[in-house]
## 1
Amino acid sequence: MSQSWRNLLFAHWPVPAVEVQRRLPAGLEADTFEGQAWVAVVPFEMRRVRPRGLPFAFDFLELNVRTYVKPGGVYFWSLDASSRLAVWGAQTFFHLPYKDARMRCVERAGWVEYESARADARFRARYRPVARDFHADSLVTWLTERYCLYTANRRGVLYRGDIRHVRWPLEVAEAEFEENSMAEACGIQLPATPPLLHYSREIEVVIWPLRKLGSA
């Protein structure tokens, strides 16, 4: 599957590793940077999503809550999407916890204004890049340069999916959050400290089919 991720914000908060670990499926281990686990809320636009073998592509909005697991991967607690087709396809073929949501994204006066709402979680924020000459440090590289995802089906069977793209074209960002209960809806309490914020205008991505890692 090929796709483009556009107007993406990484909003990262430090969370105790024990809190992350207790909310992971059996068989996955929380990854840490200098003993610290991290949780991210990531809003963006999915553009030109094209499953292999199909003659069409489609666009939708996505907002995910993610953390990091060993070895070198991403784990998603939730993924909001504005497309019911995308929700069905991701749940059916990728065993990912996609959720149907009412979503909106507009660019206005240099800001990206983003909203998502479902029964148990809401997100409303605006964000923009503020430093174009940005060079990622070791923490930012550790957080963002991840090239696989892990998930589990309803029986607890683990899967891995590989992801390929160029190195993230990141910029330092600023954001204003009006509502953000996304992580709380997943059982994660974010700290009151300001998040680590980074923006990416657009990146092209290729995703391979899942591979089963084990059985429940």
## 2
Amino acid sequence: MEYVTGEKERECVFCKGPKEKKDERNLIIYQGKYAFVVMNRFPYNTGHLMVVPKRHRLDIDELNDKEFQELFYLMKVSTQVLKRRLFPHGFNIGINIGKAGGAGKEHLHLHIVPRWVGDTNFMPAIGETRIVPEYLSETYQKLHSGFEDLLGREKGRTGGQKK
């Protein structure tokens, strides 16, 4: 409800966040050279991540090769970190492009939603409520350290930078 009824920011949240240098407050887990990984502040499930190009783009066709490669490389790394830290049984991964495609934000991004067998019950359907069993700050720490563990060794590979 906070998201639905709250005041909307005028500036693109995906453009603003990486520039602020307040990664933990903005739930940015990892920043590469061309893309970054951020936790969804209003997750569908624990560990719901988004991978976002740093340049404001509306469509995949607008990405250059380096942006495209890093976007999908970070998607792969994100699933690896989630597997090692949260132990999901599977994932929903998607990109909503354009309003007709379900995009709520005009800045291109992809969603990675960890899934567990039995993680959906009557609450979303009947109670219009999602159950997230862990505070965002706790999940942030687990996943941030997972990215450091995995990409700290590979820092030069994507041009990424630690927090």
## 3
Amino acid sequence: MNLTLEFTLNDRSCRVDAPAHFTVLDLVRDTLALTGTKDGCGEGVCGACTVLLDGRPIRACLVLAARLGGRRLVTIEGIAGGELDPLQEAFARVGAVQCGFCTPGMILSARALLEEEPAPSAEDVREALAGNLCRCTGYVKIVEAVLVVAQGRRG
């Protein structure tokens, strides 16, 4: 059985038909061809599939697409509007990206944190990113990148 879903995707109205069993991850990657959202563990543990639903980070592999009706979904493709987002720039500048697989989820989780807490401590950043696993960087540069953006916003 297919469902017709209407929601806002990356600041644009979206209407799409999808199987009732599809997760947000299935919909984003397989139907909408937005492959920046990564398929990591499929169990909600790694955070690679993190997207923002109504401004809050969710694991796209755990949420049924049927829950999107009337809501606002943001993927990594939707955060910059044609240019790099300040978080993307900071990740590149401070060396927080290695293989890049975890980066979209990290950036979206960090963005949600900065919306809620514009002046986070390093501990706040580590806590906000605790659900996003990285096997390459050791997290130090990732935390630094988020703090660079936070400091830049403060002036």
## 4
Amino acid sequence: MEWHDDAIVLGLRKYGENNGILHAFTKEHGRHAALVRGIQSKRSPKPWIRTGNILKIVWRGRLNDQLGSYKFTEPAEDCSPLPTIHYNSANIIHTLIEYLLLLPEHYPHKNLFEEAKDILKSLTNSDISHSSCKLVKFEVLLLEELGFGIDMYKCTISGETNDLAFVSPRTGRAVTRKFGIPYEQKLLKIPKFLKRNWMHVDIDSHEEICNGFYLSGFFLKKHVWQPRKIPISFARTEVINYHENASRRQSTI
């Protein structure tokens, strides 16, 4: 048995003297672990096997449900060295990898793969706010893929699709500004960059980015973290802290 695919590296652990088990998230075959032989040899593709890198791989095995082994043909065309100079670049990568490791093995999530790849590619520049917006969108898509989608596109009271401003934490459904203002303190705010057909993203609006993280984070905690007894991600918290501090600095100018 053999298949070819693009894959995001999730992690590598040593296996025996000279081998390793690589965990990867593939486009067509989902989360998949396989043996990598000779990781200590001179011909090893170890420099490519870095968490968050995007590779072209070949899987081989006798049967589909066996461990099998990976062979690397080359890094994917869009795979660039990820930055190490910005602390929050690493935090975004770690947060993303934690989410991908939650997904069931061998079950494809093509939309999540494309969004994850887009986030990793965006980290090749220094625009952390832009990458943070993409991470929030990934979290919303992750909830949808897991069956806990948030309805942010129609008011649950009036059925209107314009001027949606809040989401009910109880139902996960949107309400317009008109109906939501009296209960604003109890509702979650919808940031502009999550609204349908919203093309422009003000990447300097750190408050908007925080609102996005609060919104997706509430439902992630309710439907994913608490049921699985998963602690809140330290890396994700650090990303939010960065934008909260930046928002406070903006408000004092």
